[in-house]
Amino acid sequence: MQEITNIKRPIGKDELTMRVIFYIAVAIFALICLVPFVLMISSSFMNEKEILTEGYKLIPKKISFNAYEFLFHNSANLISAYRVTITIAVLGTVLGLFFMSMAGYVLCRNDFKYRNQISFFIYFTTLFSGGLIPSYILMVNGLHLKDSIWAMILPGIMSPWSIFLMRNFMKAIPDSLYESAAIDGAGDFYIYWKIFLPLAKPSLATIGLFLTLGYWNEWYNAMLYIQSTYKYPLQYFLQRIVSQANVQLLVQQGLSINTAELPSESIKMATAVVAIGPIILVYPFVQKYFVSGLTVGAVKG
Which pLDDT value is given to residue 299? Predict the structure, then answer.
């Protein structure tokens, strides 16, 4: 029986032709998607004069490190911005996954009487919001989070879309697991922590990736609430560097860069390279969970 199951079906000419066409099309599409990324890296090493005269190119005529020299000149503030971004990304992702997975677990339970009413209340927030002014008053006067990193963490800690994704995924977990654990005397939190949470790894990875990307790209709340320079997140810090890339700042910092080679354009690409580098390294480890979490969470329920 084992030998029969191991026999491979021969591939016909038509199927082989379609596979070759499909693989070639996917390879071409992947290369097209890769071109902007390669262009960004190569442009970050271009001479400013070359960019202004010839535009961005995949292969620069002359390698220039002016943009990175300008960017890393004040390395202490850059490291501090990295530290703040990593802190809010880790804390926000962990807390967000914890609270949204608990909300999804509660809403997926059929024995929870008010699950439909609470689900409607959560869905309602996707249609209407209080607006900027009430949010600002709440954060500053109500919670007293002016110039606090928690002002960048709390606004993104709960997402209606992520809660419903978690709920739909947990609905696919058999009720028999809950019932057998309850018969053995396990409480709700034990069932959630020991049974449902380990089985929800794909959805956790999917939501965790979205949360991490959101916190890593944080700049808007920092602009509103953060005043201390050492509390600036990476994206907001880089945005300020780009806006300050002028002759006066170079003179103040004592950098010996030719006026014609001021990195006002190439520094935009250099900041993008510095900002997305860690995310690119993390994504391959959660990719398989990300794809399965999207497909299962979107179909179930």
Answer: 43
Tokens of 107: 């809403």
What angle do helix axes 75-108 and 234-243 make, rounded to 10 degrees? 140
pLDDT digit string, tens, across residues 132-180: 888 889 898 988 999 999 999 998 898 888 899 889 888 888 888 888 8
Output the CA–CA distances (angstroms, integers) from residue 176 to 116, 168, 215, 256, in the order listed: 22, 17, 37, 71
pLDDT mean values, one per 10 residues, the chain (301 residues): 53 78 90 86 80 77 80 80 92 94 89 86 83 87 90 90 88 84 86 88 85 89 90 87 60 50 70 78 66 50 43
d(CA 130, CA 140): 15
Dist CA 280 CA 297 (whole Å): 24
C-alpha to C-alpha distance for 34 and 41, rounded to whole angstroms: 11
151 Cβ partners below 8 Å, 6+ apart?
Answer: 139, 145, 221, 224, 225, 226
Question: Where are the alpha helices (H) located in 55-131, listed in sequence order?
Answer: 66-71, 75-108, 115-124
CB 210 within 8 A of CB 148: no
What is the rounded CA–CA span in Å between residue 160 and residue 300?
Answer: 17
Of 272, 290, 297, the C-alpha closest to 211 is 290
Q: Which residue has the tokens 């690119």?
A: 280
Query: Is the Cβ–Cβ distance between 263 and 67 less than 8 Å?
Result: yes
- Which is it for the CA torsion 96, 97, 99, 101, positive or negative? positive
Rg (CA), the chain: 25
